[in-house]
Write a structure and sequence with these properties.
Layout lengths: L4 H24 L3 E3 L5 E3 H17 L4 E4 L9 H13 L8 H5 L8 E9 L1 H5 L5 E8 L2 E12 L2 E8 L4 E4 L6 E2 L12 E5 L5 H9 L4 E5 L3 H7 L5 E5 L7 H13 L3 E4 L6 E3 L2 E3 L4 E5 L4 H9 L3
Parallel strand pairs: 3-4, 10-11, 10-12
Antiparallel strand pairs: 1-2, 4-5, 5-6, 6-7, 7-8, 8-9, 12-16, 13-16, 14-15
Helix pairs in contact: 1-2, 7-8
The structure holds magnesium ion (MG).
Amino acid sequence: MSLLKEEITHLLKVIKTASKITEWLRANNIIQYEKVDRSPVTLADYASQYYIINKLKELFPSDKIIAEESKSSQLISDDITLLNQCFSSLDLPQPKDFKNLLNYRGMESNRIWTIDPIDGTKGFIENSWYAIGIGLLIENQVKFSLISIPNYNGEMKIYKAINGNGAEVSSNFIDFNPINVSKINNLNQSKVCHSLHHDNDTTKKFRELAHIKINKPMESMAKFCEVASGNFDLYIRHIKNYKPKIWDYCPGDLLVREAGGKVTDLNGDPLIYKDGRLDLPTPGLIASNGLLHERSLDTINSII
Ligand SMILES: [Mg+2]
């Protein structure tokens, strides 16, 4: 195993606390900014990333870190005051060197941690689903992942996957239960989830051709969690003019595969991670229960 039992226990505490931080800020004050690409980011994205990086730096000082956000000049002293209030009300030490630590990326190493401090920031802002994702790659293979959905219909859910050891879910961060993909093998009876903000003509056409009756747009990597749990059978993502980010995909990739499903590019090949990036040679990917995979690939490839 790539991690010790006590290291996994520490990591569970880290993602639980990051989830409490984002939930505190969601309840108290969602301070929103705009990134250079005009996508939204909030104080909670920064706070969650700060907390996770700080802990990973302590726990694994010689590992490399890849994280979504970077130091921002938009953070003003009022925001830091709110952050201090958040941390004290959660009995956490006051943040130190907050802005600089957002840019900490560890050491050069073949052990790489990926952090998405809030995936689905729009969902977070709209009080809908969002996720926090942490992945560990060793020699370009995903070995471990944690995904938290802090606002899963009023519950805080956490999903854990260990390479070769299955996928599990917990609602209290203590008791974990194994999860498995569904056994549906008729495409026209399958439940499909897709990106809320990146649905397009190709994925719409896929649903038409495959006679999909139930489909749900969803925020964040929660889509992988829903497929891994068997609540949905298929997640299909067509990507146009966009380089997918490793932190968005590697935790869910391992989770679905460890729950017995399949995740591939549109050629049917496993996702390839190289030099801290997701190297996707086709314009999209499919995560499925495995049984629906080939037919889904044939169908989408007949469109694009
Ligand atoms: Mg994010």
